[in-house]
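Margin note: ligand = acetyl coenzyme *A.
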Amino acid sequence: MSAQQVNPAPQQFPNFTPDSALDLLFSVDLISPQVQAELPADLHIRPLASTDYHRGHLSVLTVLTSVPDPGEAAWLGQFNAIRAAQRTYYTLVIVDKNTDRIVAVGAVFVERKFTRNLGLVGHIEDIAVDKQQQGKKLGLRIIHALVYISENSGTYKTILNCSDHNVPFYEKCGFEKKENEMAKYA
Ligand code: ACO
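Resulting structure:
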């Protein structure tokens, strides 16, 4: 037996929780292998997990909008409600393996239409990259991974709303500007 077999190398990321130890929102089969391969070795992309309340899920979202903390029980209630709507709502996270903390998030939900031969449309929502990690292509990777899920769900298009400021970012992700957004707040 070689010395290497007797003394295996210490685990490179001792704090990292592997997918197999998590209760995930959807199957890892929907994670783009290409996007995972393009990420640096210390970053991992996966579905949201039921314990991600403790990995900074809400704090990453604060770069996007106001995110009051609903408490863990209410957060988990939302996670379970989303999961119950099967094949509809997909939230992705990128985790820093060194810290087991979330550094980027994004979501896509699949709308079922009566038009377009019962067509499906993917709607991308709530993209956020931790301030320290912006400008490292994580936003781009999240968008590519969400489009992969959308298209593998059978959608004929994937759409999103964004500010003028973010239009160049989405163009770099392969989107083009179409029509206008209208909103009515309650
Ligand atoms: N204007 C011009 N170019 C941009 C912008 C911008 N605002 N943001 C990114 N880019 C460019 C980058 O320079 C890069 O170009 P390159 O390929 O030529 O180098 C390319 O777009 C990819 O950029 P990333 O590094 O992937 O961007 P990042 O990881 O910082 O993520 C994001 C972009 C998601 C907008 C991030 O900055 C962020 O979280 N911002 C705050 C929250 C936010 O605005 N989220 C989007 C809301 S819209 C929605 O959720 C549907």
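The CA atoms of residues 19 and 46 lie 7 Å apart.
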